[in-house]
Design goal:
59% of the residues lie in helices and 0% in strands. It contains 6 helices and no strands.
């Protein structure tokens, strides 16, 4: 998961005791920092709740609500869903139709 916007770098850095605001490249340069920021984001946003229900649209609302608000961003959602389905296929998981779109 990506960390976007300065406040997320600052908040993640505070939680991980790192200065990610001054050095955001640490996330890209260290697998450990990347994994730690992903776990921080997952827990902080409550993404575990829709993810545990298999609610893909619910996770999209958390990641990028712009895709769910009925405005032009909704067109981006198609690409996100197609990528999700391709990844499931790569892991040999069956295709799911459980709430894919917002």
């Amino acid at each position: 998961m990506q960390v976007s916007y300065p406040w997320n770098y600052w908040n993640a850095g505070q939680a991980l005791d790192l200065d990610l605001l001054s050095n955001p490249d640490l996330v890209a340069q260290s697998d450990q920092v990347a994994a730690s920021t992903a776990i921080w984001y997952y827990q902080t946003t409550g993404m575990n709740i829709p993810a545990s229900r298999g609610d893909f649209a619910g996770t999209t609302r958390i990641l990028n609500n712009y895709e769910c608000n009925g405005k032009p961003g909704r067109l981006l959602q198609v690409g996100r869903v197609l990528t999700y389905l391709r990844i499931r296929q790569c892991f040999g998981l069956e295709e799911t139709a459980n709430n894919l779109y917002c």
